[in-house]
Amino acid sequence: MRQRRGRVFSRLFVGVVLAVGLLAASSGPAGAKNDKPKHAKNTCTGSADNFPTEVGTLSGTYSGHVKISGACAVDAGPTTINGNLTVGPGSTLIAAFASSSLTVTGNIKIQSGGTLVLGCFATSFGCFDDPNQDNPTLNGPASVGGNIIATNALGVIVHDTSIGGNVIQHRGGGGFTCDPQGVFALLGPPAYTAYEDSTIGGSVDLKGMRGCWLGLARDQVHHNVRVFNNRLADPDAIEIVLNNIHGNLNCRRNSMVWDSGDLTDALYPRVPQPNTVDGKRRGQCVLASPATEGGPLGPGPF
Known about the structure:
This protein is mostly beta strands. The protein is built from 3 helices and 31 strands.
């Protein structure tokens, strides 16, 4: 079976980052990339216009609120923020390195046009410092004690992350297109959002996004999942597959939802990848998505 769309995007993302030399830039001492301090007053700054050669470095232990301004990476060892983390408007934080885990005891907020790449998992999103990108073996877990809250974000890509609270993402996504834009235009794939191979202690609420692709895969969600009014340009979106949801799963007014994976480069035929839902399934997420073009819903549950 062909890897699903999110994996294809992630290979492009990681491959371009490696090709342009982000890892080479981060191989020196922490904070040495631009001969400037790596942070000042708990703000990590870097040049988004010259990404990634002038990317900032977030490393060490911080107390209180930390803000990302421009483009920063967590690539110089384990980093702990005892407080909240904000990815500012139009800014980017890349924290997907096996050697450099990120722990945030409070909330992560992604503001308008911002991008977050958090955690990495060998089978779904290879770590940027994995030496074998053709067959990744390394994982890079991350931890968020509170919530991940994104409002009008460009993209949020989360893997192998323990989230103590809720995931709330409203609007954003860059518009109904698969043309790369923003930082994604520099890194290869279209702007997209994915929450995969992660544990979420609260609920997931994804609402009003307009973009290319959106996926929830292999997550443990301890409360409810709501996916409302999202319009995605990729016909393979929105994929909600192989999750274990202890509450309800409710999907309404979305462009399409799938609980299946594609077997070839074409959209059809598809293989079922149903979710386990302890509560009720509602709306578009009651019966399995069609396995063949023009086929019926079901017969099994979504």
